[in-house]
């Protein structure tokens, strides 16, 4: 790799990527130029909130030579044969052909290290001479200036330059051995959610503004202030940056009540699993990082089964399940989640399949037979607990006729989803005896439970994955008052799926197992 300076404020490199045989152009910011010329904007607490001169400071230029091409048939040949030789500009986000609109002339842009015809590869020189595009006595090649505006550079590009100096300025001491740009975030609708480490607090508003600038799909960037509320899984957020004005300082009631316009500030629309969800990010629990887990479980459900979503939130499991014809009893204790859940069920056209309730999850589990009976009595079904589906089909004469399909709603659920990882395991004892009122022949199926949980272990603890899982198994046995040598539930009967790592030593699991008859019928 060779490195060349393009001008006072942009650097380009001739670099071979992933073992390729040809070099490409990589551009970067000049660290010293940026640090010598940057001007920050501060708030009343002397915290940096933005860069005053960012539009001019990061508007950089790169000079390249180009070769005018009069015959358009040569463009395809040149790009096909010489894009991979290092002759023609190959730079992400930048075209290799320049079109002069006033004259209509088009030119091939050369790589920035190619200054003269003699710098080009032998094959390219031969082609240009043979086709009379240039001659041996060609004058100096015309220059083309490529402009890289502020929008071109990523937040990481900028923070990698600023962060070391900002750490010195604010005496920021990180716990990591290496300095990483703290710009990771998750997206929920038009909200970017960050969980910035406390040692970056002096520059958190600057980080938020950079995220907002560099991600046009966002209108607001927020930072988590406190741990999750154990009851409703919500947390207080500070607003770091916003395109929507005016905006509250945080989601604390005292800040939200200062202006009537703040009422719906944290309300957003989010698309996932072919569904559209509306939610207030400050009042309900939502984690966009769980979208693959939502899809994974939903894909395991079959049409016309009954799924009990015990801690359903605003419906990320319930709505996609309803779209594939799964019946769902969708419950959440949080009244705000319940209202948004009803809205989402309606907007995603799954009213026929999903029933929303606002109860304690423990009560739903203990009295599931009552809730199943109520579900089958919904007005959408007939008095026999059947769903009549009507659809048009073509008969043998290829004429459209109306056909009815009768779906019998099951009397017993097939699955329980318990997505409250901090405490869902503590609800498991409520399954004991839920079918006591049924006779043996009436228990035609035993439900599967999918319980989400965390299992934290020590950083210096030497422990295998199986040992971590066995700890979860022991916690579940305790809920059912079972010993490790019991004959009812064995460790081998459990399926563990690691959903994600909340922290290096804190995995989140989804544990799936079928409830044995000895638990659901204890009498």
Task: Give short descriptive properties of this protein.
523 residues; seven-stranded mixed beta sheet; disordered N terminus; alpha+beta; GMP Synthetase, Chain A, domain 3
User: What oligomeric assembly is this protein in?
Assistant: single chain
Distance between the amino and carboxyl termini: 76 Å
What is the spatial order of strands in the main beta sheet?
18-17-16-21-22-24-23
Mean pLDDT: 91
State the share of residues found in helices, binned by percent.
Answer: 10-25%
Helix/strand/pairing category = alpha+beta
Radius of gyration: 31 Å
CATH H-level superfamily of the largest domain: Vaccinia Virus protein VP39
Describe what this molecule looks like in 3D.
The protein is of the alpha+beta class and 523 residues long. It has 3 domains: 2-151, no CATH class; 180-265, Met-10+ protein-like domains (GMP Synthetase, Chain A, domain 3, 2-Layer Sandwich); 285-381 and 410-520, Rossmann fold (3-Layer(aba) Sandwich), CATH 3.40.50.150. It has 14 helices and 24 strands. A 7-stranded mixed beta sheet has the order 18-17-16-21-22-24-23, with helices on both faces. A 4-stranded antiparallel beta sheet has the order 7-8-6-9. Strands 10-11-12-13 form a 4-stranded mixed beta sheet.
């Amino acid at each position: 790799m060779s490195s060349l300076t393009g001008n006072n404020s942009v650097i380009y490199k001739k670099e071979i990527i992933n073992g390729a045989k040809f070099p490409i152009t990589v551009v970067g910011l000049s660290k010293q130029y940026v640090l010598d010329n940057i001007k920050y904007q501060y708030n009343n607490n002397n915290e940096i909130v933005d860069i005053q001169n960012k539009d001019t400071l990061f508007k950089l230029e790169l000079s390249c030579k180009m070769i005018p091409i009069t015959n358009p048939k040569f463009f395809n040949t040149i790009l096909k044969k010489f894009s991979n030789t290092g002759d023609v500009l190959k730079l992400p986000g930048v075209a290799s052909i320049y079109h002069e609109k006033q004259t209509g002339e088009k030119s091939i842009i050369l790589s920035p290290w190619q200054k003269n015809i003699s710098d080009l590869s032998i094959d390219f020189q031969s082609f240009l001479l043979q086709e009379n595009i240039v001659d041996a006595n060609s004058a100096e090649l015309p220059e083309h200036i490529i402009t890289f505006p502020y929008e071109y550079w990523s937040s990481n590009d900028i923070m990698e330059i600023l962060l070391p100096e900002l750490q010195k300025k604010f005496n920021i001491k990180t716990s990591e051995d290496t300095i990483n740009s703290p710009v990771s975030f998750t997206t929920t609708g038009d909200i970017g959610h960050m969980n910035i480490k406390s040692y970056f607090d002096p520059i958190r508003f600057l980080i938020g503004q950079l995220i907002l600038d560099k991600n046009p799909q966002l209108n607001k960037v927020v930072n988590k202030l406190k741990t999750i509320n154990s009851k409703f899984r919500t947390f207080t957020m500070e607003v770091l940056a916003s395109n929507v004005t005016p905006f509250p300082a945080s989601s604390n009631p005292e800040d939200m009540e200062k202006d009537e316009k703040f009422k719906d500030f944290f309300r957003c629309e989010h698309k996932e699993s072919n569904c559209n969800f509306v939610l207030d990010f400050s009042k309900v629990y939502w984690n966009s990082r769980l979208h693959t887990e939502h899809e994974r479980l939903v894909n395991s459900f079959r049409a016309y089964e009954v799924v009990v979503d015990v801690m359903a939130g605003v419906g990320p499991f319930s709505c996609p399940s309803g779209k594939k014809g799964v019946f769902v009893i969708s419950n959440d204790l949080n009244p705000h989640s319940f209202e948004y859940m009803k809205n989402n069920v309606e907007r995603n056209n799954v009213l026929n399949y999903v029933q929303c309730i606002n109860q304690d999850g423990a009560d739903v589990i203990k009295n599931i037979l009552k809730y199943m009976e109520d579900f089958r009595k919904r007005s959408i079904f007939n008095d026999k607990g059947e769903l009549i589906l009507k659809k048009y089909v073509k008969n043998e004469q290829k004429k459209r006729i109306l056909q009815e399909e009768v779906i019998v709603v099951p009397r017993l659920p097939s699955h329980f989803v318990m997505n409250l990882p901090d405490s869902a395991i503590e609800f498991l004892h409520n399954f004991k005896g839920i079918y006591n009122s049924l006779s043996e022949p009436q228990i035609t199926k035993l439900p599967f439970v999918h319980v989400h949980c965390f299992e934290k272990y020590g950083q210096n603890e030497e422990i295998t994955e199986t040992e971590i899982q066995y700890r979860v198994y022991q916690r579940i046995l305790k809920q059912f008052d079972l010993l490790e040598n019991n004959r009812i539930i064995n460790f081998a009967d459990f399926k563990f799926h690691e959903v994600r790592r909340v922290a290096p030593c804190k995995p989140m699991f989804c544990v799936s197992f079928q409830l044995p008859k000895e638990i659901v019928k204890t009498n």
